[in-house]
Each structure stands twice: as C-alpha cells, then as structure tokens.
C-alpha cells in the first residue's frame, strides 16, 4: 500500500528538473513549467495560463497564473501510483489566491467519464492558509488511473505548496452526546430539515407547546403527518426528518443513535454517513405502550457527515435525543444543553427579519454542572459582534427567555450567526456543545404581500409555505413550476392510470397565497401514453430518475388535450405556460432508451448506464408541441402567455443540439413569432459582469440567430432557468459542518448578483434562478441548489439577492458604462429614481471606484451596508434622479 504521498515535497527532492509545458498542446495558450510529477490538463479549454516555480523564505511553491478564461477550467493533476488503494485518506495543502476563482480539488478519474471520487470546492484567502480534509474511498474503479486534480474556474493567481495525500485515521471525536441538545422543546434545531415537498401546516405540523412533558423533563416535539404528497419523483405518504450533522464520533467504537418516541405510527430510524445509510431500525408505536426508545447501532468506519433520519407516517412525539457510546446514555439527561430558536411568526420561523424590525430569539437552557451564565452572541460577516450574558437560576433549574438583540445600525443587513454558550464562573465555556442559528436581516421587499406581474425576478421553489415565504421575502415574485412544482401540472403526475386524473389545487393556491405569479410547465407524459411503451430496454423508473417521464407523447393530439385541460383548470391562477423542457437535451426530450449507442445516433445523452435518444430533428418536434399549447390557450379562452423556442447557450456536448443551431432551426420554423415570449437557459462556470462576458456570449449563441433571422427580436426574452455556480458553500455556521468562510459567502452572493444583473443588462425581461427546491438534508448535496442551504434554510447569499431586488424592482436597464478603474456600472432607472450596480472587473485586481460625497446618491456594499472602497464584490449606488444624472455622478468618482 502507498503509505504516504507528499507530492510537492517529493517532487522537490527529485533530481529531475521542472517540467516545461508544451504550448502546442493548447495552441499556445498554456506556457511555463510545473514541478516534477504534475501535469497540465487545460489544452481542451479556452484557458490562457502561465505556470512558474517560485521560491519564498527558502520554500519552493507552484504558481498558477490564469490570465484569461473563456470556457472550461484551468486544470492540472498529479497521477497517483497504480497500487493506490481504497481507504481513509487526508488531502492537505497550503495555498493562497489573488483574484476571483474557486479551486476544485480531489481525486478524479484521468479518463472518461472523468468521475470525481472525492471533490471539494475551496476558496483560498490572499494569505497562506491550510486546507485539510479526511475522506473515505470505499472502492476504486477497476483498472482506471486516478489523479489528484486541481481546477480553477476564474482569472486568478494561485500559489500552492506542501500538497500531501496520506493515510488517515478517523478523529477521536466526542464521548458525550453527539446531538447538540437532548430535547426539541423549541422545535427543530438549526440545520435540521424535512423532505422538501411536505408543506408545514398542510402536509406536516410541528407542535412545541402540546401540554406534554417528555422523558427529558422538557416538552416533547409533536410531529403529525396529515397527508401524503406527490413529489417530483413519486407519491410519498411518509415524511423524513433529518438531523443536523452530529458531532465527531469516537472512531472504531460501537455507538447508538436514537430518541424516545411515542404515538400511533410506524416507520424507520436510520443513520447516514454522507449519502450512505450505515444503520437502520424499523419501529412500530402503539399509544398504550407510552414512551419507547428507538435507536440504531453502528460503528463509524469512514469519514463523512453523520446524520440521523426519522421516516414515518401518522403522529408521534419525540424527545430525549442521544447518539454516542451506549454506556453514556443514562448520563445524557443529567448533562446540560441549550436550545435556540427564532421568534415565532411566519418570517421569523424562516430565519428572516426585515430591516427596522427587532431581532428576537427564544432560548431554553438546562444548566450544566459548573455553568454560571449563558452567553448569547451574534456575529455578522464583517466580524461585528453583540452579546448578552444571562445568569442561570441558583437552583440549576431550566432557563427560559426571549432575548432582543440590539444589532449595530451601520452594518445591520445580511446574515447574523447567533450562538448560545454556557460559561463557568471564570467566563470559560463548559463542556456543553454550543448551539447556533442564522438570522437574515433583509430589506423589506417592494411587493411584500402583493402581486408583482411586471417584476423581472423569478425562482424555482417547492409549493411549501416556509420556502414560499423565503422566496417572496428575498424579492422573487414569480415561480416556474419545473422540478419544484412540476408535480402540480406535469401530465405523468396527474394521470397515473389511464383516465384517472388527480389534481393538487391546494399546491397551486399555495403559490398564489404567497403572491407569487406562476410560469407553469406543460410537460412529461404518462408511460402508457408516451414512447416509453416502445423503449428498447427498461429505462430508469420515475422513482430512480426525474428524467424518465420525459419520453415524448405518442400522440400530439392527446398532448394538446392534456394542455387544454390544465389551462382551462388553472388559467385564472397561472399567467404563463412553458412548453415542455429543454428540447435540445435528450435527457428531457427522448423517444427511446438503449444500453448500447447505435452507430448512426445523432441526438443522445448518457444516463444510468444507458443512453436516451432524441428525435433527429428535435426542433421540429418541439414546434409541434408549441403549436398544440397555443391552440389549447385559444380553445380555453385563457389570456395566458405561451413561452416558445426554449433554447440554450450550450455548445452541444455529447448528442445535445448546440444552442446556435437549435435557435436557427426554430427561427426557420417560425416558432419565435408563434409565441408570446422566447425562453432560454444557461449555466455559468465563471464570473460575469463585464463586456463580452459569459452571459453576453451565451445570449448571442441562444438569441442571436433569432434576431439575425428576423432582423429584430420578434418577442421579448425570458431567461427561465440557470445558475451562476454549482456546488455552493453551505450556511454561515461556526460549529455545524460543513459551514462556509466569510469570503466564500461574499463570493457566492456576488456571483448571484452579477449573474442577474448581466442577464437584465442583455435584455432579459424576466430571470428565473435555479433552484430553491433542491434540498434534502446532508445526505444528498445537490450541486444546483441555490439561495438555500442543504437543510433548506435561507443561504446567506440570498441576502445579497434580496438587496439587489429591493434596489432594482420597478427600474429598467438603461446602459452600461466604465467608471473608476475597470469597474462596470449597470444603470437602471424608472425615470425618477435610478440605481447603478457596480461590478469590478474580475480580471483586474486593482479595479476600484470611490464615491464623492453626495446628498443625492447613496453608495452601499453587496448586502446594502456601508460602501467599502476597493472591494472586489458588487456594490450599489442609488438615489432620486435620472439615469443621466447618475451617470454624471459616477464619472466624478475615482
């Protein structure tokens, strides 16, 4: 077995000279030299990179200077030896970064399909810092070469040294309760979650004050599953509640994880390590049995986030949480713990407080031995902090309180991490886990509690009350029912048996109750009415894959009848309809599924060990569907708008249709005129917000051919799906993994603001971000999750989006101009009030603009707080005046 790989140190000890990069492999774009053992791997991308070996304080390090990046990544790798084995490993290195880029690192296959076995996104700081992760590889692909891969997704200079990959032991961990608290008297704690399609108050309820006293001596949490729900995969009559990540367990010891339950229900308690279930325990509860401990035993044998899941139907009460060594179970109730919860109320429960409102938190604390007081401390992204200390009762009874936190006025907006810690007489923390919450202080949205049909801001979000509240609170006023919400309108979900239709009118009403306007999607087909009946081989079923119901209908007439049924039923609630989804992508537009790709296949996409095949001319087939929807609107008498074309900026990976080719074909067919708006999708890999950026290039690939064909755009453009990044960092936690650094949070919020601003600057009438509907706890971290955490809480980047929507709502894009040193100002105005979004060029580290004093114009930072000169992140200037007046003011800045 390879006992240790100390890669850069090993390379430095070699007698071989540094490896000179062959520029011919990249048409001259990549130059320089790499330390021995490292290989350059960016020739396939449009990346201009220069590598040098530098020395500082007697230490060699690798410098990677990404000077320009048009598509793909700068990437380089170190090949692992053939006898590299599965097991638990630690990857560590020292790094610093100047510029705006994220570093993807981990273990990856060298050859296709280039699968990552372990991957982590890192945002190094400007000064040297250490990255270290322990991970477990349970198995390796047989006969496949592997490498440590490094990828940079933006223009930046990365310095890298001391790269090590060594066998690792799991950490010693805690020998107390691995849950951070013993009871749930104040409801679900921070980072706990439940399945994203179950709406609280409708499908599931959580009751704290229920007149009961549980085994912990505290009120238990009552959870009632009132009804099942159709998800975007299948119908589920059981809800799954997922815990926050447990504290680090003692390695190699047999542990137990569970809780006291009572009620009338059956279900299962499970323990997960990442996405893998490592223990499970079925249970059945009867009212006459009273409280019953349900627990599963396991031995931590691999690195990863540990969580506990409770899946059940019916009603149960939950209390006395314990995970850890079985012999310590009896001590858990005698030890202290603390609970922290937001003030009750719709927005507060969603982790939101509007500017000008008091920030209140509820707390319950059972005093630990030696504890004298409880400190509640709130810290924001800038490091500003406020705290209060509350003495414990002298009799060591339970402390209950509701605190008002006086936040500083200067930098009040944005996320605040609120933490409660028990302290001893000397002010030091006692041996009790700290608990935390994140409170997001947001500007009150312009259309809070009101419809906003002309708003450009849209989102994908599930029809559940908590997330609909979040979406509206951050300024999103439209929702597209794709993935999140597709179960309400999708044909495959509504006619599950021939002739038997089942509608969820309450789900549609829930969106409208929160004043979200709707872009419905007329999509999917039941297997018995689609080409699925003729599939060459059995395909991944709906339970396994969201793509399976996208086999095209056998009959366009039947598809039209389905559309008319939906439009007639919901025409008064849904303002616009999208036709199907992504016809240029065979995953969502297919007529067959095969295990072996035919030699003459033109349009295909690999999935699940096989291949989906699309029609040879998907544009023509899609236009048939578009005409059916147009006719259905006419037949129903509805005034709903129909979106057409549904194109992309894509370059045609695998058997996908390139966006330019698809748009050209749709224009030739007349589809761009035979609709009310033209829709397109784009997903980014790099920072935007400057002339010729990835958004502008994508817009030209997707929309340019239509404009060229007609001489002008025949219809407005709606951007209906996309994201500025994948695999976002998680929440603003200090003790709950995986957490995120402050720079990662600023970076994520900045990318969201840049993306939306650039799209509006290109002329998009509406922008639907994707997606707030992709969270299911820490077992399945969806890379397309946006604006929410893995637990479904509001992500700190959503506060930046909320600030953007509040200052741009009601204003139209006017122009873009350069100001200061390589800062790009996007000006929006309604004629009376104007706003500039200032985006420093990410390729220029000296980009800056400094405002002149003004009573007319107010400058603010990414979250709406005091302006920071020289910041690499988005900032804003807003005030009363025309676009021309604002332009003149901006030009006065330095």
UniProtKB/TrEMBL annotation:
One function term, GO molecular function aspect: hydrolase activity, hydrolyzing O-glycosyl compounds
Keyword Signal found: yes
Signal peptide: 1-18
Keywords tagged on the record: Signal
InterPro entries, sorted: GH (IPR017853), Glycosyl_Hydrolase_39 (IPR051923)
Organism annotation: Victivallis vadensis
Protein name, UniProt field: Uncharacterized protein
């Amino acid at each position: 077995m390879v006992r240790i790989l100390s890669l850069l140190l090993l390379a430095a000890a070699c007698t071989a000279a540094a490896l000179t990069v062959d520029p011919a492999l990249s048409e001259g774009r990549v130059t320089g030299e790499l330390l021995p053992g490292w290989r350059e791997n960016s020739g396939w991308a449009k990346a201009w990179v220069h590598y040098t070996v530098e020395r500082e304080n007697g230490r060699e390090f690798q410098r990677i200077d990404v000077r320009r990046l048009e598509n793909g990544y700068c990437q380089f790798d170190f090949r692992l030896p053939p006898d590299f084995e599965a097991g638990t490993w630690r990857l560590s290195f020292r790094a610093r970064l100047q510029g705006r880029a994220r570093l993807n690192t981990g273990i990856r296959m060298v050859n296709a399909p280039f699968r990552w076995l372990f991957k982590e996104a890192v945002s190094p700081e400007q000064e040297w810092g250490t990255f270290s992760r322990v991970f477990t590889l349970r198995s390796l692909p047989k006969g496949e070469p592997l490498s440590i891969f490094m990828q940079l997704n933006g223009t930046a200079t990365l310095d890298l040294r001391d790269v090590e990959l060594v066998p690792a032991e799991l950490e010693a961990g805690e020998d107390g309760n691995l849950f951070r608290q013993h009871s749930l008297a104040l409801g679900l704690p921070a980072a706990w979650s439940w399945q994203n399609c179950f709406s609280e108050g409708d499908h599931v309820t959580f009751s704290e004050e229920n007149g009961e006293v549980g085994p912990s001596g505290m009120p238990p949490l009552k959870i009632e599953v009132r009804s099942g729900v159709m998800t975007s995969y299948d119908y589920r009559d059981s809800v799954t509640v997922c815990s926050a990540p447990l504290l680090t367990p003692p390695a190699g010891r047999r542990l137990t994880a569970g809780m006291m339950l009572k009620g009338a229900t059956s279900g299962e308690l499970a323990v997960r390590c990442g996405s893998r279930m490592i223990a499970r325990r079925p249970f059945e509860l009867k009212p006459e049995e009273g409280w019953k401990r349900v627990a599963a035993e396991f031995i931590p044998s691999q690195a990863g986030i540990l969580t506990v899941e409770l899946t059940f139907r019916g009603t149960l009460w939950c209390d006395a949480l314990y995970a850890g060594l079985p012999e310590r179970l009896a001590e858990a109730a005698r030890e202290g713990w603390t609970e922290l919860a937001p003030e009750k109320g719709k927005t507060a429960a969603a982790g939101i407080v509007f500017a000008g409102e008091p920030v209140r938190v509820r707390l319950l604390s059972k005093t630990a031995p030696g504890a004298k007081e409880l400190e509640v401390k709130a810290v924001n992204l800038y490091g500003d902090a406020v705290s209060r200390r509350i003495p414990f009762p002298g009799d060591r009874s339970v402390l209950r309180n509701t605190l008002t936190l006086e936040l500083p006025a200067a930098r009040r907006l944005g996320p605040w991490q609120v933490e409660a810690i028990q302290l001893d007489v000397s002010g030091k923390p006692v041996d009790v886990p700290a608990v935390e919450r994140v409170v997001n202080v947001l500007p009150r949205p312009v259309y809070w509690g009101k419809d906003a049909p002309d708003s450009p801001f849209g989102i994908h979000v599930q029809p559940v009350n908590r997330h609909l509240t979040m979406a509206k609170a951050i300024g999103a006023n439209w929702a597209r029912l794709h993935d999140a919400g597709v179960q309400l309108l999708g044909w495959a979900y509504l006619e599950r048996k021939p002739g038997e239709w089942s509608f969820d009118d309450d789900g549609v009403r829930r969106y409208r109750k929160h004043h979200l306007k709707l872009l419905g999607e007329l999509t999917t087909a039941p297997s018995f009415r689609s080409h699925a009946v003729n599939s060459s081989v059995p395909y991944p079923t709906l339970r396994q894959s969201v793509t399976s119901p996208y086999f095209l209908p056998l009959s366009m007439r039947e598809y039209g009848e389905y559309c008319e049924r939906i439009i007639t039923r919901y025409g008064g609630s849904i303002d616009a309809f999208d036709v199907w989804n992504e016809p240029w992508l065979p995953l969502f537009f297919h007529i067959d599924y095969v295990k072996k790709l035919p030699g003459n296949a033109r349009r295909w996409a690999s999935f699940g060990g096989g291949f989906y095949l699309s029609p040879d001319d998907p544009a023509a087939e899609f236009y048939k569907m578009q005409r059916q929807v147009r006719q259905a609107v006419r037949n129903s008498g509805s005034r709903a708008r129909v979106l057409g074309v549904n194109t992309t900026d894509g370059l045609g990976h695998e058997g996908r249709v390139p966006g330019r080719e698809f748009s050209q074909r749709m224009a030739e067919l007349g589809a761009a005129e035979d609709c009310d708006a033209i829709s397109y999708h784009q997903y980014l890999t790099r920072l935007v917000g400057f002339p010729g950026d990835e958004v502008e290039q994508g817009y030209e690939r997707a929309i340019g051919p239509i404009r060229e064909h007609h001489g002008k755009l025949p219809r407005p453009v709606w951007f209906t799906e996309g994201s500025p990044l994948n695999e976002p960092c998680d929440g603003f936690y200090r003790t709950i993994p995986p957490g995120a650094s402050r720079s990662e949070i600023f970076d994520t919020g900045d990318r969201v603001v840049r993306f939306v601003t650039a799209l509006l600057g290109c002329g998009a009438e509406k922008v639907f971000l994707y997606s707030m509907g992709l969270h299911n706890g820490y077992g399945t971290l969806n890379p397309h999750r946006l604006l929410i955490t893995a637990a479904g809480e509001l992500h700190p980047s959503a506060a930046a989006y909320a600030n953007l929507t509040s200052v741009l709502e009601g204003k139209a894009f006017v122009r873009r101009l350069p100001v200061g040193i390589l800062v790009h100002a996007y000006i929006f105005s309604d004629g009376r009030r104007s706003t500039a979004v200032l985006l420093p060029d990410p390729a220029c580290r000296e980009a800056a603009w400094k405002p002149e004093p003004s009573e007319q114009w107010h400058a603010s930072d990414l979250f709406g707080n005091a302006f920071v000169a020289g910041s690499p992140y988005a900032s804003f200037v807003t005030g009363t005046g025309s676009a021309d007046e604002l332009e003149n003011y901006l030009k006065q800045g330095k």
